[in-house]
Structures are given as C-alpha cells and as structure tokens.
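Possible regression after last week's pipeline update?

I re-ran a chain I had predicted before the update to compare outputs. Posting the input and the new output here so someone can diff against the archived version. Not blocking, just want to make sure nothing changed silently.
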Amino acid sequence: MSRKPDSGKAAPAPSRSATHPVPAKGQVATGVQWVTVDEDMAGQRLDNFLLARLRGVPKSIVYRIVRKGEVRVNKGRVKPDARLSSGDVVRIPPVVQKARAEQPVPGARVQQVVEAAVVFENDDMLVVNKPSGIAVHGGSGLSFGLIEVLRSARPDARFLELVHRLDRDTSGLVMVAKKRSALRFLQDELRNKRIRKYYHALVAGSWSDKVRRVAEPLLRYEMPNGERRVRVSEEGKESLTLFSCLQAFHGYSLVEASPVTGRTHQIRVHSAWAGHPIAGDDKYMDDASQKAFRAIGGQRLMLHARALEFCLPGSGDSLRLEAPYDEPFAKVLEELSKRNGKHDG
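New output (post-update):
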C-alpha cells in the first residue's frame, strides 16, 4: 500500500469558537460564571450589573453577548434593561478581560489571626469572628480580604465562598460556605429572612426605649470623590432595623440592632437617622462627636456582629452563635462604665 509523503508541515490548529475567545497579550479569558443576585444587587438593570462585574470589557461586547442570548437569567434570554431580582441566577459567558496584576499572598500572621477567629466549623460551613479593619473580600485598592486569607490558609479547600458581607470596620460573625449546596441553602435562608442577625453598637446620646424600629428606605449614592454612601430617601429600597437599648452610659448608649433587611450601611444610617450615630463612624458621625469619642480612647467603628441564629445546612438543626468583643471595643465600654460610676457617685 502506497503512503503519501510527509510534507513536514504541522496540521492547522482547530479554530476556537466565538464562545471561547482567544486572549491577546495582557488579557485573560474567563470561564462561564454563575452569579446569584443578592438583596443589594436586586433592582439593578442587567447591563449595569454586567458592566460592574466585567470591568475592562468594552460596552459593545457586553451588549453583544446579551443580544446573542449568551447571557441568561434563570436560564432564559433577557434584554439589557431587564431588572434583576433577589435570587435570580445570572449566567455570564466566557469573555476576554484585561489580566489582573499578580496579587500579593496574605502573610502567615494574618492567616493565623483569621484561622484563630473561626468560632464554628463543620463539613458544610464555617463562621468567623471577623476582626475590625479586615474587609470581607479584596478590591477597591485592597489586595485581599477575609475570603482570600481563608483560601490562602486552606489551599486544599475546593470551595470557599462568602454567604454574606460585613463592612470593613465592622467586627463580628461572618458565614462562609464550604459547599455550593450550603451556599445556596444559606443564601435562600437569608432571602426568606429565616436567619436572625444581632449587632451591638455603641451610639451617641441616650437611646429612647420608644425607638424600637426604624423602617426608612435607603438609597445608595456616590460622593463627588467617588466614595459610596447611603442616605434615607423615598427613592430608596425598603429597609427595616429593630432596636433595643442594652445599657446607658454618660453620653452614649449600647444598643442591640437586628436588621430585617440587608442593605449597605443599614444599621449605621438608621442609627444616625434616629439621632444616634454609631461612635467612630467616619461616614455618618460629625467631626465634633468623632473628636469627643477619640478623647475617651475610641479607636474603631463601634459596631459588632454579636450573634447569629440559623439552621444548619444538611441537618436543619438550629444553632445560635455569639462572638465576644475585641479588645478596643471592650476597653471603650470599660472606660464608659468607670465614668458612669463617677457620675453616679
């Protein structure tokens, strides 16, 4: 049998389809992403949601993948101006983005601090008493946050995802899922308001026992310098926080706040609206009050995610967890207790 002579030329590489874009130098191709919309994302137009997640991707590409049906919401085709609802699942197809600069790896010390702050763990999830000053995730100029530190400390973990968020300067309990099924279960529990969160906050002034609930709508907006803030506005999203006074001090009150909804800066803005901004809040407390707080040794935002009540994924067993205050928080309360004694005497 005769054989054709080998030409010595390599066979041409198979072409990649448009669904698998080829990145140029300085770019990277992402895989398919599945994103579950949370309360804070709800109400956004799909195009704005995609532009925020696909930074560096030209608008023309974003609108094209929507028009071609490559973006799906709950497995269905949608238009760019479609409004997202909490619980929607958005499929984002592979796209080419600018490659991110290599991120520094969290050091051993911060990994040890975060691992030591784990207050509960099983096969499905873990709960961390997050220190004040550590963001829950990297971004906005931060190299890494709590979730990146956990992933670095646990390189063999196949899945670690935040269930919810806390502000960078707020300390306390944060849930992290170790399985996708646990993430879905816990986020569904949050959407249906079956997880109770209890925060402790030191606020300025004497909190009235008559103020048991604040139900003012909240609107996110941007300052001229690009900083994001929140204010009470009829144009905002429905919001509800339950309050109770735990202890009165001279010039301050320790309150328990239980947010029924989960808006950005909700407790901070609702407290300030009630006339009692949270001590140490550089966004919603005036300069004079800030200065007075620093004078008694205040070093941080006095907001702490104290307790969680929820059902465990898998078993459905009820669990309540509590997190102690850190030293700066406890020291301020100790100083105020001493001052109370002096004024009482």
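Follow-up from reviewer: compared with the archived run. The chain has eight helices and 18 strands. Marking as no regression found.
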